[in-house]
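Tutorial handout. Part one gives the primary structure; part two gives the three-dimensional structure as tokens.
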Amino acid sequence: MRFAMLAPCHDTGSHTPTHTAFDPDEVEVVVLPRRHDGRAPCEDGFVPQRVADDMLDELAMRGPWDGVLVVIDRPPGGDGSAARQVAKRVRRILGPDVPVGTVDDARTDIADQLSEGLTVLWALRSIALDPAGW
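Part two.
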């Protein structure tokens, strides 16, 4: 299975433990947008429109996907609406058949949260592909 993890506000290094949570022969996790400088271009959980547009273009071009996890930090006192807005745009791009999850309160245990989120998406997709196997 192939999952996209949209993480515009996170340094690429924070996702390294997530890649080791799954067998690479069974699950491929692709972090978008692909940044080579390691910087997170967001401030206070706000995703600049240009960054969101580029990331979603990359999502559409690099598919197909079995699930998508949207990861955006909730700023102090924030309501998580940034992650939900990006998830709604993902849903419009991919349609109703691909599971889309959000992590909008990423704290220091980000690797655990991401692994749990991807595990849920994996289970949902596995059930959809083989309901008799569950």
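Part three, for discussion. Strands lie at 2-6, 28-32, 67-71, 100-103. Helices lie at 16-19, 49-62, 81-94, 110-129.
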